Amino acid sequence: MGSVLADLRALLALQGFRRLFTVRLVSQSGDGMFQVGLATLFFFSATSQGTAEEVAIAFAVLLAPFTIVGPFAGVFLDRWRRRQVLLWGNLTRVALTAVIAVVMLTSGVGPWIYVLALLTLSVNRFLLAALSAAQPRVVDGPLLLTANSLAPTLGAVAAGAGGLIGFVLGLGFEPGRVKDSAALVCAAVAFAVAAGLATRMDKDLLGPDRIVRGAELRGEFARTAQGLADGARYLWARRTPGQALTVMATHRFVYGVTFIASILISRNVLADPADTQAGLAAFGSVLAASGLGFAFAVLLTPTLSPRTGPHLWIAIMLCLAAGSQVLLAATLTWTTMLIGAVLLGLAAQGAKIAVDTIVQRDTDDAFRGRAFALYDVLYNAAFVGAAALAALALPDSGYSPGVFAGLAVVYVVAAVVYGRFAARTPADVGPVDRGRPARPPA
């Protein structure tokens, strides 16, 4: 614990990290507000029925386009100034979110809401990829592991806090269009603040070293597919990043089924199905428990994973996730639901921290943007696959002991297979170009 706090103090002494971290916190708090607004609308409103098929379709519609946006994001993150991406991306979200709020107030839910939501969430994933690709430019060496623990985890906490603010705001309004748009207006304000905070960083601080403009940039569209293929071949040739991304996609697939089941259980089992407000509150409790697991991950991963190594740590987290599924398969109560959420949150975030570190550490800076774009593609494609499985395998109540037992088996198999592959991989895969070193403490 003491070493973690010491590392945190060292990180916060880095001006570049501190400013990038602030942009992340504010931006992701706006994400939380936005997502609560969508969750209320799609899953916990009086007009949604909350069946397994409807929830799965909603997730598929929201996430499937990210597999198309992701490859383009990687190419541009390796050629555009990442600081400018954070600035203009957040300003774009301000405009889109404001339009969604106006449409909801004037016309209610319609096809345009889905289109605008898809665009906004696509920009969000682009920004998160930019934040991850930029982090090694402001942190280097052993502190990178702590940065990967602190930044994404506290970003998730900030998103949870923003979601809580959006939920509390909704309680002050009667059900209707004003309530649905309240969280979106607050999200637009947060995105605007994040854009302003991005301007405190130098344009070139976050890289990349080579900037492409004008006609040359337009020509990149024709080379996107080739660039993505080159990135995938590079990551697999490096072995450790490719293996880490594969196991994370597997983890995300199983996690996605559990997440969809949690929505259905919260609405149809833990609360009266006719009381959508109680269902939303129940799901909020489950998310809070998962957030507690994230907090444990930020404390335990930097302390314990250096002793085990990131590969063994990932295998341990997969086994812990299997335990959470066994618990739910045995019995479903409020206690087992919350404990399972804590364990799964710890496992998901602990594994993600280690995967982020492996990908950042073992990927050349020229490919790092594409690496995290591929990360996003696999991340969201796995959740789309999970939505399809959930629609077929889960009952409308969301609870199936057989499904949870099957998910536990998948986790155990993934842990064993990844552990064996990682054990055969040389510890040193060769040097990489990490980009400009981080600035020393002020």
Summarize the structure.
This protein is mostly helical and 442 residues long. The chain has helices at residues 2-12, 15-42, 52-63, 66-77, 82-106, 111-134, 143-171, 177-198, 214-238, 240-268, 276-308, 310-330, 334-361, 365-393, 401-424.
Question: Could you explain the architecture of this structure?
Answer:
With 442 residues, the chain is mainly α. It has one domain (2-202, 229-424): Growth Hormone, Chain: A (Up-down Bundle), CATH 1.20.1250.20. Helix content is 80%, strand content 0%.
What characteristics describe this protein?
15 helices; 442 residues; disordered C terminus; mainly alpha; Growth Hormone, Chain: A
Q: Average pLDDT value?
A: 82
Number of domains: 1
Rg, Cα atoms, Å: 21 Å
User: Given the helix and strand composition, which structural class is it?
Assistant: mainly alpha
What composes the largest sheet?
none
Helix content: over 70%
Span between N and C termini? 24 Å
What count of helical segments does DSSP give? 15
The CATH topology corresponds to: Growth Hormone, Chain: A
Q: What is the CATH architecture assignment?
A: Up-down Bundle
How is this fold's topology laid out?
Layout: H1 2-12, H2 15-42, H3 52-63, H4 66-77, H5 82-106, H6 111-134, H7 143-171, H8 177-198, H9 214-238, H10 240-268, H11 276-308, H12 310-330, H13 334-361, H14 365-393, H15 401-424
Helix pairs in contact: 1-7, 2-6, 2-7, 2-8, 3-14, 4-6, 4-9, 4-14, 5-6, 5-8, 6-14, 7-8, 7-11, 7-13, 9-10, 9-14, 10-11, 10-13, 10-14, 10-15, 11-12, 11-13, 12-13, 12-15
